[in-house]
Every structure is written in C-alpha cells, then in structure tokens.
Amino acid sequence: MSDSTQPVLGPGEQRLYRLGGIAAFILVAGWFLTFPLYAAGGGPEPMGAAARLLHYAGREPAWWAILWIMVFTDFMYVGVALALFQLLKRLDQGMMLLFVAFKGLFIALDLGLLWPNHAALLSLSKLYAAAASEAQRAAIASAAAAPAAVLDSLLPNVYSIGIPALGTLFASLVMLKGIFGRPAAYLGLAAGITGIVAVADPFLGTWGKVHIVNGLLATVWFLLVGWGLCRIGWRTT
Length: 237
Fold this sequence. Notes:
Elements: H1 11-40, H2 49-56, H3 60-88, H4 93-130, H5 134-152, H6 155-175, H7 182-198, H8 210-233
Helix pairs in contact: 1-3, 1-8, 2-4, 2-5, 3-4, 4-5, 4-6, 6-7, 7-8
C-alpha cells in the first residue's frame, strides 16, 4: 500500500478507518471461533426437516453459539463496508456503491432469512427430541419443513456466498487503481470469482469444494483490508 496516494485525512475519517479495520479483524476472529463449535455441533448439516432436527438435538448450545457469533459478525461487515467505501469512492464511486449494495444485501438476507430459519429449526429440534409420540414428532417435523426447505435449497449459497463475493469483486476491481496495492486486489478478485463459482457447489457432490477455497481467500482478503484500514487510520503524517 502506498501512503503517497492518500489525501490528508480528517479525524473523523481516520476514526472510521480504524473502526473499519478493527471490524475486519473481529469478523475474521468470529469465523475462527465457529470452527470448534461446528465440530461440537456434529459437522455438516444433513438435508431434510427430520434429519436436521435429529442432527441439532442435544447439540443446540453449539449451534446457538454459532448462530449468535455469525449474527454478530454480520454487523461487522457494516463497519468494513463503510470504511472501504469512504476510502475508495474517489477512485470509482459507482463501483464502490455496487460493493456497498451487495454487501448490504447479503447482511439483510443473512439476518432476515437464513439465520431466522436456523433459529426456528434449533427451537423445534429440542421439542422433537422430547416428543412423547410419533404423532408429535410428525407434527414438529411438519412445522420444520418450511425452514428446512429454505436451507436445503440453492438460496443459502446464493445469499451467503455469491452475493457477498460480487461485492468483494467490485471493491477489488477498484483496488487495482491504487491505495491497497495489487496483492490485496488480486486476492479479492480471486475470492470474488471463486465465490460466484461456489454457488454451483451443491450440484457437484463431493467435488463441490470451491466454497472452502473461497472461504480461505476471503479470510486473507479481510485480514489485508483490516491491516490496510488500520494502517491508514493510525497514520500520523
């Protein structure tokens, strides 16, 4: 990153960049915190209402912890997006507006659709495990059918991987013009492209592992973004 490309910053801008950088680090830390919880929660979620309810049963604390951590990290995206927009808008305001729009859409869909459906299934799983008869279990599984159908569809991949990947792609195209440097820009481009490709993972069976590559690339990209924002935010000259 070249500081010579930066204009003189006011206290408000520097504070925004510091907060954005810290938010990026918290975001990544939150992702890492979910790894042991995911293992404690039994790993990959199965398909189908009844299968999901059985999978969550007895493991609700781990899954509730994952849910609340991921909801919290969604709010961290706001700080990162605002800071990046303020920093890069002078290079290409239109592209950065697209970046903010796609990241904002991801946050809205994640908080308004995906995690509420997970919460519904987690609540029902405890009832399912405690059901005293097959009739009760069938009724609970029927209630779980709608949220499970949403999570079993292609929508989670589109909402949680494809849409934010487009935002990363737009911001990284602007990064090519300066400030952050080409390594971060190229890494962001790779993260954006792999995120778009990863939408098709459910159709690829055991070959559908692009989302893992995308997750690794996105993690490093956010660390570089966080470091860059903090460096600019704490710059004294």
